[in-house]
Amino acid sequence: MSGIAPSILAADFANLQRDVEMLNASAAEYIHVDIMDGMFVPNISFGLPVCEAISRHAKKPLDVHLMIEQPDRYLADFRKAGASIMTVHYEACPHLHRTVQHIKELGALAGVALNPHTPVEVLTEILSEVSLILIMSVNPGFGGQKFIENTYKKISRLNQLRREGGYDFKIEVDGGVNLSNTPRLTEVGADILVAGSFVFSSENPSQTIQAMKNAQEI
């Protein structure tokens, strides 16, 4: 589990099938699907019907990022809608271990996301249970934000915990990711890079994904 996960949130919603098919043919390993409820984050993106529509055309695994309150209510529904990976926020889950177990029981890979202000140490008791830790490198809710520099230190610390504990979870980073910071992010331990507006606003999204992939492998 490594590579590039373009965020479909930045796609052209009037041509969603076209953009999903572009990702299918690209070097991306995943399709990142941002679900926002207007409560946990100050924005609303889309919900189950759009996720299911994306799944109908996607040939890459759907990496579903649930930026929502009480995500347990919808885990089974998002799994049915095509989610291969379901990532919940530490900040939204008072019973995180139970939530992670539920995701795994549904047959999906379980991920946990951390907001920029949340230290990685809060996850020490759950690291052995998850497939993915998502480090937010912007405050969640909107695309196109500036990368928070402290993210490098957080990823490095999480990578250290992974090595020391012998864990096999992947480290994903989301927010302000581009070609200039891809090599350093990879160097400090990031495995999966989420990029939205950087990919979809570029002249040739497929070439941009390939360039990020190449930079990740240097």
Automatic annotation (TrEMBL):
<keyword id="KW-0479">Metal-binding</keyword>
<feature type="binding site">
    <location>
        <position position="7"/>
    </location>
    <ligand>
        <name>substrate</name>
    </ligand>
</feature>
<dbReference type="Pfam" id="PF00834">
    <property type="entry name" value="Ribul_P_3_epim"/>
</dbReference>
<comment type="similarity">
    <text>Belongs to the ribulose-phosphate 3-epimerase family.</text>
</comment>
<feature type="binding site">
    <location>
        <position position="32"/>
    </location>
    <ligand>
        <name>a divalent metal cation</name>
    </ligand>
</feature>
<feature type="binding site">
    <location>
        <begin position="196"/>
        <end position="197"/>
    </location>
    <ligand>
        <name>substrate</name>
    </ligand>
</feature>
<keyword id="KW-0413">Isomerase</keyword>
<comment type="pathway">
    <text>Carbohydrate degradation.</text>
</comment>
<dbReference type="GO" id="GO:0019323">
    <property type="term" value="P:pentose catabolic process"/>
</dbReference>
<dbReference type="GO" id="GO:0046872">
    <property type="term" value="F:metal ion binding"/>
</dbReference>
<dbReference type="InterPro" id="IPR000056">
    <property type="entry name" value="Ribul_P_3_epim-like"/>
</dbReference>
<dbReference type="InterPro" id="IPR011060">
    <property type="entry name" value="RibuloseP-bd_barrel"/>
</dbReference>
<feature type="binding site">
    <location>
        <begin position="141"/>
        <end position="144"/>
    </location>
    <ligand>
        <name>substrate</name>
    </ligand>
</feature>
<keyword id="KW-0119">Carbohydrate metabolism</keyword>
<dbReference type="InterPro" id="IPR026019">
    <property type="entry name" value="Ribul_P_3_epim"/>
</dbReference>
<feature type="binding site">
    <location>
        <position position="34"/>
    </location>
    <ligand>
        <name>a divalent metal cation</name>
    </ligand>
</feature>
<dbReference type="GO" id="GO:0005737">
    <property type="term" value="C:cytoplasm"/>
</dbReference>
<keyword id="KW-0170">Cobalt</keyword>
<feature type="active site" description="Proton donor">
    <location>
        <position position="174"/>
    </location>
</feature>
<comment type="function">
    <text>Catalyzes the reversible epimerization of D-ribulose 5-phosphate to D-xylulose 5-phosphate.</text>
</comment>
<dbReference type="GO" id="GO:0004750">
    <property type="term" value="F:D-ribulose-phosphate 3-epimerase activity"/>
</dbReference>
<feature type="active site" description="Proton acceptor">
    <location>
        <position position="34"/>
    </location>
</feature>
<feature type="binding site">
    <location>
        <position position="65"/>
    </location>
    <ligand>
        <name>substrate</name>
    </ligand>
</feature>
<dbReference type="GO" id="GO:0006098">
    <property type="term" value="P:pentose-phosphate shunt"/>
</dbReference>
<dbReference type="InterPro" id="IPR013785">
    <property type="entry name" value="Aldolase_TIM"/>
</dbReference>
<protein>
    <recommendedName>
        <fullName>Ribulose-phosphate 3-epimerase</fullName>
        <ecNumber>5.1.3.1</ecNumber>
    </recommendedName>
</protein>
<feature type="binding site">
    <location>
        <position position="65"/>
    </location>
    <ligand>
        <name>a divalent metal cation</name>
    </ligand>
</feature>
<feature type="binding site">
    <location>
        <position position="176"/>
    </location>
    <ligand>
        <name>substrate</name>
    </ligand>
</feature>
<keyword id="KW-0862">Zinc</keyword>
<feature type="binding site">
    <location>
        <begin position="174"/>
        <end position="176"/>
    </location>
    <ligand>
        <name>substrate</name>
    </ligand>
</feature>
<feature type="binding site">
    <location>
        <position position="174"/>
    </location>
    <ligand>
        <name>a divalent metal cation</name>
    </ligand>
</feature>
<keyword id="KW-0464">Manganese</keyword>
